[in-house]
Amino acid sequence: MKKLTLAALIAGSFAATASAQSNVTIYGIVDAGIVRETGGAAGSVTKVTSGIGSQSRIGFRGTEDLGNGLSAIFTLESGYKLDDGTVDSAGTLFNRQAFVGLSSKTLGTLTLGRQYNPLYNALSKVADPFGAGYAGSAKNLFPAGGVNTRVSNAIVYTTPKWSGFSIEGMYALGEQAGDSEAGRLFSIGFNYAQGPLNASLVYNNRNNDAVATGTTPAANRENGKNTLLAVNYDFKVVKVFAAFERDKGLNSSPIPVANAFGYAVAPRASLEADDALLGVQVPVGSGKIIASWMNKNDKTANNQDARQWAVGYTHDLSKRTSAYVAYAKIDNKNGAGYTVGNNNEVGSGDTGFNLGIRHTF
Known about the structure:
The protein is mostly beta strands.
């Protein structure tokens, strides 16, 4: 009887220790609704779409206490389409995030893998009242696609907070044989978050060179550079948002859809542009009204400017479930070709309407 009791105590002790040191969380978002788009070459489009406000996803987040304030951490996150059950990106499993690293309360956090670009973190979390989702997404005019959203082969270091201040730096290897610079990207963000004020200043630099492959010669191209200043302030009765971004160089301001409006001469991606945003969130009962205005000023000879205004409303049905409605309209100038999309899609025309439901777990 004593041996059994001792064995049970030892087993219980190991179980308690493992529970205290390790923790894995399964989390996700389930988001779907009806989207109607008009104004593009495809005509009026009405569809059931996944990931309008936030891309539907399932993820695994883990941490292990290593002692002395140090923890091992990891995240594996996969996107999927709720409307048809397929993966968000064919050929990949954890296409959204996949990283492992160490986190220290005093020294900061270092992670390696596929991760968010600090530029996108500032745009979606600080600048945009729509959170980079719904018809009013800042991604419709601000350059936030591809490596400006997530970056593979990335090393990210984030400092601890000092009186609200922190720094986030990323260096991503291009991993092209024979050239350590080709395809690399680095980004650094200076952040402040304390009380009602949030602010970020981010610089992003993308190398567009390509090494020779087969009969295709190497290409030395201009770097793409983005500098974003994003601010929001919560007055309680209204939360105000503002952002300004300078884009310069190749791929600094790509067009999400090559020629959505079927122009005889396709729109040209700007090599120098200024982007501006003003927005608000107004609490109303169990929900909030969201509105924003954006302007893209193409500073090249093409002068392909665009403006967008958007309005939406989200209603909290519970702590985890919300319903939403949103509408946005883009005014393209001089053959510009920007479209109204949402969090998961780039859109097909110059207007977009959303009606849907979102649940987090």
